[in-house]
């Protein structure tokens, strides 16, 4: 961690961090998108004008402003403008529709709602009107504007709740997660210091800016003074031109992003898919060890993976100077100030990056133990070196005839199989066994279809205990994923295959 980043890290609020960075390097670029460039100085000055425009509309400190916008320079400007006012912002993933958006607007009591208008064939303005949203305004390529002279002083308190993020709803409503500027600054600082980046790097934001990773990444840019390329819609190979044009050195997002880059690399082995790239980094979903080794071996870049969630944006992170073994098999180490406690195999957390709880007081009460540790629901262990190894979700343990089986253990083994591109292992209801083990496999093009016999034979050879062997194998064209970090939606697999009888393939 360099001296400048250390000094900036003492900032109390996100706006103070931007103000201090803009004073240091006003002319250096911070956001790149297509042919547009925004400098640190322009980010501060333009965000103040947007803040003044919002003030003229009636936004005040404490006003709740929801926004559902794609990853664009305008989105970052609006978010910083809201932070400048000390208002409360509620980012909503742009792929959410009536049910999730309506829930977020009602629960947050949003007084204003920024939308992109019609975006990717969907009319967000019409949805907002349909939901009866208040203070609807479009903010895709035009933002409110005003004279900063009208603005009150910037917020000085970084510990008030000014952010409401939403967990991704699956079979139930999403939860409203309460964050402060300081909790987001702490999460972003962990990411920045672990990756050992410098002002000569060029990052990339290829995931929704409305995700908790948005401020995480912005804090890193502000601390170290380097830019990132924004991708409004990420898809390979179409996005590769943007990575190459801007000389991106650090890419990633989650495990699915690593896999997509690796698939592109395999089209032309030995020819770097992005010549300037030196590091893939991310989190948000389990990383099979074989994927780490394949990226390093075939792409010739380093891969560092971390562990975070909406409630705690950055918990641990692998560092580029970690051993290959730790980078492949662990989620890295926690930063200073993050306490990890393992209770009955479950990971619990305490530290500044932990959220203040949920909008629902009952959910908040259930989320923390008697010592103030946040109960994650993840299972894991700490190594002697302090690295965290995740072994699965408490809800992802399959109980077969009274025996606990880790889905992740089976998935990691199957990821090594050459006929497996991706896999999800789930427990399905079974009258005789309680649950049966089902492996749902996504295969590479032209691979020979895997059978149950082939899968169990392979896993036996890998040393998997007999009682953990799958009793069912299903081949799918593509595993169902969410639209944020491309996490596999296992509940959809359980719904789809629950009644298939366990005969396997």
From TrEMBL:
Signal peptide from the UniProt entry: none
PROSITE patterns listed in its UniProt record: AMP_BINDING
Residues annotated as domain AMP-binding enzyme C-terminal: 409-483
Domain named AMP-dependent synthetase/ligase: residues: 18-359
This protein's record includes keyword Oxidoreductase: no
Alphabetical UniProt keywords: Ligase
Protein origin, superkingdom: Bacteria
PANTHER family: ACYL-COA SYNTHETASE (PTHR43201), MEDIUM-CHAIN ACYL-COA LIGASE ACSF2, MITOCHONDRIAL (PTHR43201:SF5)
Family: Belongs to the ATP-dependent AMP-binding enzyme family.
Name of this protein: Class I adenylate-forming enzyme family protein
Species of the source: Streptomyces heilongjiangensis
């Amino acid at each position: 961690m360099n001296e400048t980043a250390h000094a900036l890290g003492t900032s109390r609020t996100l706006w103070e961090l931007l103000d201090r960075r803009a004073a240091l390097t006003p002319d250096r670029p911070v956001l790149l998108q297509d042919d547009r460039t925004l400098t640190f100085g322009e980010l501060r000055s333009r965000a103040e004008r947007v803040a003044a425009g919002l003030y003229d509309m009636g936004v005040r400190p404490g006003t709740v402003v929801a926004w559902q916008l794609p990853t664009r320079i305008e989105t970052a400007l609006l978010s910083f403008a809201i932070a400048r006012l000390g208002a409360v912002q509620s980012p909503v993933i742009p792929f959410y529709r009536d049910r999730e958006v309506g829930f977020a607007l009602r629960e947050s009591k949003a007084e204003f709602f920024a939308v992109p208008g019609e975006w990717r064939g969907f009319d967000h303005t019409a949805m907002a009107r349909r939901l009866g949203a208040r203070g609807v305004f479009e903010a895709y390529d035009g933002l409110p504007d005003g004279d900063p002279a009208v603005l009150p002083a910037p917020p000085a308190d970084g510990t008030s709740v000014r952010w409401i993020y939403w967990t991704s709803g699956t079979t139930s409503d999403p939860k409203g997660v309460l964050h402060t500027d300081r909790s987001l600054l702490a999460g972003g600082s962990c990411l920045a210091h672990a990756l050992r980046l410098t002002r000569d790097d060029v990052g990339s934001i290829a995931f929704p800016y409305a995700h908790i990773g948005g401020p995480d990444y912005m804090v890193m840019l502000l601390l170290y003074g380097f830019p990132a390329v924004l991708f409004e819609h990420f898809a390979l190979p179409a996005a590769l031109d943007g990575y190459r044009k801007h000389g991106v050195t650090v890419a990633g997002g989650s495990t699915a992003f690593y896999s997509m880059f690796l698939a592109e690399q395999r089209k032309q082995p030995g020819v770097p898919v992005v010549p300037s790239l030196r590091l893939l980094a991310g989190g948000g979903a389990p990383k099979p060890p074989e994927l780490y080794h394949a990226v390093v071996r075939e792409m010739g870049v380093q891969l560092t993976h971390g562990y975070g969630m909406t409630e705690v944006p950055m918990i641990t992170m692998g560092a580029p100077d970690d051993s290959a073994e730790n980078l492949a098999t662990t989620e890295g180490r926690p930063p200073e100030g993050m306490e990890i406690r393992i209770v009955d195999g479950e990971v619990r957390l305490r530290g500044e990056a932990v959220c203040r709880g949920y909008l629902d007081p009952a959910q908040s009460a259930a989320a923390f133990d008697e010592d103030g540790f946040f109960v994650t629901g993840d299972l894991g262990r700490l190594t002697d070196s302090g690295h965290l190894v995740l072994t699965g979700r408490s809800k992802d343990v399959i109980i077969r005839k009274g025996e606990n089986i880790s889905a992740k253990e089976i998935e990691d083994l199957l990821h090594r199989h050459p006929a497996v591109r991706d896999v999800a292992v789930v427990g399905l209801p079974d009258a005789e066994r309680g649950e049966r083990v089902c492996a749902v496999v996504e295969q590479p093009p032209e691979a020979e279809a895997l059978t149950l016999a082939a899968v169990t034979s392979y896993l036996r050879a890998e040393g998997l205990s007999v009682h953990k062997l799958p009793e069912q194998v299903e081949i799918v064209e593509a595993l169902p994923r969410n639209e944020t970090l491309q996490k596999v939606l296992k509940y959809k697999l359980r719904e789809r295959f629950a009644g298939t009888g366990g005969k396997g393939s």
